[in-house]
């Protein structure tokens, strides 16, 4: 095992801090100012720490923190999603079977009396243990080894098991399946239930909800977590013995608030209304789009939908909505003379929904420059006519 103690030396930490904005390729050509120390490791600290500035501000701003490779920093949960995740569950004891850099475990420690952080990479486990000490966290136990063996030897029952499976290298190019990941959660569920009746699984947003539900069972809820309108992770809440329809819970974490929306999957819903574009247009946020709850949006917000497959909504009076809101200034048919009059050689933001042409093709065809205050939606209305909505953005 490597000794990383030299990275915590004051002169090394000062050098790292001073050079955070320097390019690594430029620094690599310089003479090592610490010839007796590992220059590559020092350079890695600079690169990894610079990656952590916005994503992991607690670690970035703390003293004597040691970072793993920049790839590990890129792959770890952000603090914002880890904080949200930690508030979903609580209890006495939780075991994190895929601990990684320890961001999730750090936030779980605020909701649980005891956290066990498992990490098969012994070097990473030592780094995380060191960092928790620097962050003055005292209720996390770091254990290095294979998660199944750690569970077997623990002789404990846990309130929750947390797992963040990673795709195996040989699964590249395949459709995302949980069985292609380590650990193989679908095959290990019964084993995990020996140690806890509640399991929280984090997966990448790439995983299709329907595919995940086919592989898993006892899914109580699926949380779709977006950060600034980009879906970052799916959280699968498993309750042993649960047999009902799972609840889909979406959240979009923004600077100012949390946009939340939820519905019960598979529940028969009332008939939704379709209508012509009215005064205001609504586009659901990325988390809702991932959920597939398009009819539920119309029902819960009491909005008319433009078309069964357009996933755009409209109303005459403005409402508070989980997504972007626009005021419609004009509706034109997608015809040559109308396009020449209103959009050709103009500047506009373009979105397509249920439309046969791509954004790039539309821009090229009508010489529309990118940007400006005009927002356009190329879509299909309820009678299957192609239309363009000219809008100003409200939210």
From TrEMBL:
Q: Which GO terms describe its biological process?
A: methylation
- Show the GO MF annotations: methyltransferase activity
Ranges for the THUMP-like domain?
323-393
Q: Which SUPFAM superfamilies match?
A: S-adenosyl-L-methionine-dependent methyltransferases
Keyword check for Zinc: no
Keywords assigned by UniProt? Methyltransferase, Transferase
Residues annotated as domain PG-1098 ferredoxin-like: 280-321
Pfam family of this protein, just one?
A: PG_1098_Fer
Coiled-coil blocks? none
* This protein's name: Class I SAM-dependent methyltransferase
Q: Which organism is it from?
A: Flavobacterium azooxidireducens
């Amino acid at each position: 095992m490597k000794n990383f103690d030299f990275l915590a030396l004051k002169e090394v930490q000062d050098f790292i801090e001073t050079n955070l904005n320097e390019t690594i390729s430029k620094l690599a050509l310089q003479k090592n100012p610490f010839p007796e120390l590992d220059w590559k490791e020092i350079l890695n600290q600079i690169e990894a720490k610079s990656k952590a500035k916005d994503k992991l501000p607690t670690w970035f701003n703390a003293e004597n923190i040691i970072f793993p490779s920049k790839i590990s920093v890129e792959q770890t949960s952000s603090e914002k999603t880890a904080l949200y995740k930690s508030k979903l569950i609580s209890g006495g004891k939780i075991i994190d079977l895929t601990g990684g850099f320890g961001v999730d475990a750090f936030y779980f420690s605020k909701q649980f009396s005891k956290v066990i952080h498992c990490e098969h990479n012994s070097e990473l486990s030592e780094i995380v243990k060191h960092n928790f000490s620097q962050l003055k966290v005292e209720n996390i136990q770091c254990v290095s080894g294979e998660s199944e063996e750690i569970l077997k030897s623990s002789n404990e029952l846990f309130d929750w098991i947390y797992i963040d499976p990673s795709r195996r290298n040989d699964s590249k190019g395949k459709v995302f399946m949980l069985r292609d990941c380590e650990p193989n959660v679908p095959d290990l569920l019964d084993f995990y239930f020996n140690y806890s009746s509640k399991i929280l699984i984090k997966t990448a947003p790439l995983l299709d909800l329907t595919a995940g539900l086919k592989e898993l069972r006892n899914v109580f809820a699926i949380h779709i977590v977006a950060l600034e309108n980009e879906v970052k992770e799916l959280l699968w809440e498993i309750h042993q013995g649960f047999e009902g329809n799972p609840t889909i819970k979406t959240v979009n974490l923004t600077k100012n608030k949390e946009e939340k929306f939820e519905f019960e999957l598979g529940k028969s819903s009332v008939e939704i209304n379709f209508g012509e574009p009215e005064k205001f247009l609504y586009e659901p946020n990325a988390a809702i789009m991932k959920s597939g709850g398009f009819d539920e949006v119309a029902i819960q917000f009491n909005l008319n939908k433009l078309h069964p497959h357009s996933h755009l909504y409209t109303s005459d009076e403005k409402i508070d909505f989980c997504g972007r809101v626009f005021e419609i200034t004009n509706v034109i048919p997608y015809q040559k003379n109308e396009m020449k009059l209103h959009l050709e050689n103009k500047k506009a933001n373009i979105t397509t929904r249920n439309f046969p042409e791509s954004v790039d093709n539309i821009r090229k065809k009508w010489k529309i420059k990118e940007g400006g205050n005009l927002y356009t939606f190329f879509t299909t209305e309820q009678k299957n006519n192609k239309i363009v909505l000219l809008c100003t953005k409200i939210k």
